[in-house]
Specification:
The protein contains 14 helices and eight strands. The chain has 354 residues and is α/β, with parallel strands linked by helices. It folds into two domains: 12-156, Rossmann fold, CATH 3.40.50; 161-352, Dehydroquinate synthase-like - alpha domain (Dehydroquinate synthase-like, alpha domain). The strands form two sheets. The protein has a six-stranded parallel sheet with strand order 1-8-5-4-2-3, sandwiched between helices. It has a two-stranded antiparallel sheet with strand order 6-7. Helix 5 packs antiparallel against helix 6 (186-208), helix 5 packs parallel to helix 7 and helix 6 (186-208) runs antiparallel to helix 7 (213-232). The two termini are 34 Å apart. The structure holds nicotinamide-adenine-dinucleotide. Nicotinamide-adenine-dinucleotide (NAD) binds next to helix 4, strand 6, helix 5 and helix 9. Nicotinamide-adenine-dinucleotide binds next to helix 4, strand 6, helix 5 and helix 9.
Length: 354
């Protein structure tokens, strides 16, 4: 990595247990006077709590965020914002809620504060998505970045363990691919290695004690770092595969990432020695893992009880061909060339769990 370009993204990050208490001062700091609080229907209670903390600054709560940002949801939220005469938003929730705030920023120029409650990492990226007529369109635009991100691990204490596990492995996948991205840098490599280290240590603790605040804090810190990697690098085969599997077969986002992570790592890491060494350090602990980060990843997923095969997620064997066709149809960055035979082999292994 002799030469590189690194472009920092300009978000302010406020991190720590209890950080939600600073929501009002952080929102005022941006010059916002009237905000709409956004959430999913399931997180309405938390949205109301955020609105109470904001006091007179909160003029409305829109608890209609949905997975994959349907354009109809964006239109309804934009109408609510207009009716309330809001000058910005506070998005409290996971990737779906942050995704809605991003769409409002993109289409209506509304600034927002993000308060993430999962490990998806969307708040650290300029990537937006919008779904219309069952097709998800995505793009990159700095206009969709939150102005401030407030990470409060206390808000993640009730995140169900299975979601914590798959969401955490999804975050790790961002870091793994950032380590061999064509636009990597020493800053990204350091963030990726630490992000994987934090999550690998925290996730097993969380399966034992979901309300362990220290483990929740480490996991959220790891998720932040991994999200920052996703925001500043170009992703490879893993993210391409996850995107195609999700889009074509409507698979759950984080579960799909969790399943394919060890298989893509096994395929790519032999061609990415620096990434392999960084992951061995981050996942280290026993001698075997030191030597083989791919096996360490697979063992971690197994210990966490994550879904392990595409078959378990409901993929039919005959679907694999369509997936491979679509992956091969569009080019993407990857440290190891991927042809039909290699991809068929990888999908076969991820399907059957070999
Ligand atoms: P999500 O936001 O859909 O949340 C999943 C469910 O968990 C929701 O019902 C939500 O109400 C609930 N939930 C969230 N936090 C909770 C908590 N702390 N306690 C209890 N329940 C909680 O899921 P996600 O995995 O965060 O986000 C997935 C979406 O984000 C996908 O659409 C994906 O494409 C997108 N995403 C985008 C980017 C990007 O850079 N643009 C990055 C990662 C993910």
């Amino acid at each position: 990595m002799g030469s590189f370009v690194y472009e920092a993204l300009p978000m302010r990050v406020v991190f720590g247990p209890g950080a939600l208490a600073s929501l009002r001062t952080e929102t005022e700091r941006l010059g916002l006077r009237r905000v709409t609080v956004l959430s999913t229907p399931g997180q309405r209670g938390l949205a109301d709590r955020a609105a109470a903390l904001l006091g007179a600054l909160a003029v409305d709560v829109f608890a209609g965020a949905r997975m994959h940002v349907p354009v109809a949801t964006v239109a309804a939220a934009a109408e609510a914002v207009r009716a309330a005469d809001a000058d910005g938003c506070v998005a409290v929730g996971g990737g779906s809620t942050v995704g809605l705030a991003k769409a409002l920023a993109l289409r209506h120029g509304l600034p927002f504060v993000a308060v993430p409650t999962t490990y998806a990492g969307s708040e650290m990226t300029p990537i937006w998505g919008l779904t219309e007529n069952a097709r998800k369109q995505t793009g990159r635009d700095r206009a969709v970045l939150p102005r401030t991100v407030l990470y409060d691990p206390e808000l993640t204490l009730k995140l169900p363990v299975p979601v914590s596990v798959t969401s955490g492995l999804n975050a790790m996948a961002h870091a793994v691919e950032a380590l061999y991205a064509p636009d990597g840098s020493p800053v990204v490599a350091a963030m990726a290695e630490q992000g994987v280290r934090d999550l690998a240590a925290a996730l097993p603790e969380l399966t034992r004690g979901p309300e362990d605040l220290d483990a929740r804090t480490a996991a959220l810190q790891g998720a932040w770092l991994c999200g920052a990697c996703l925001g500043t690098t170009t992703m490879g085969l893993h993210h391409k595969l996850a995107h195609v599997l999700g889009g074509l077969l409507d698979l759950p986002h984080a579960d799909t990432h969790a399943v394919i992570l060890p298989y893509v790592a096994a395929f790519n890491l032999p061609s990415a020695p620096d990434a392999r060494a960084a992951l061995a350090r981050a996942l280290g602990g026993d001698a075997a893992a030191d030597k083989d980060p791919t096996r360490a990843l697979a063992r971690l997923a197994e210990r966490l009880g994550a879904p392990r095969t595409l078959r378990e997620l409901g993929v039919r064997h005959e679907d694999l061909r369509r997936v491979a066709d679509e992956v091969l149809a569009a080019p993407y960055a990857n440290p190891r060339p991927v042809g039909r035979a290699e991809l068929d082999g990888l999908l076969e292994r991820a399907w059957s769990g070999t």
